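Task: sequence in, structure out. Protein: DEAD/DEAH-box helicase domain-containing protein.
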Amino acid sequence: TGKTGAYVIPIIERINPEKNTIQAAILVPTRELALQTSAICMELSKHLNLRIMVTT
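Result:
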């Protein structure tokens, strides 16, 4: 989670929860990594009223 957090935290910091648009997209090479990354994003942003979506 350290490596994922290194790029997820700056992305989360730049998101404006007031805007109802897609503000970031993270592309990863495998389904498993997508699920892991989305779980970390959800954990890091759980108090920020953000919606995280994963699609594979």
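The chain has two helices and no strands.
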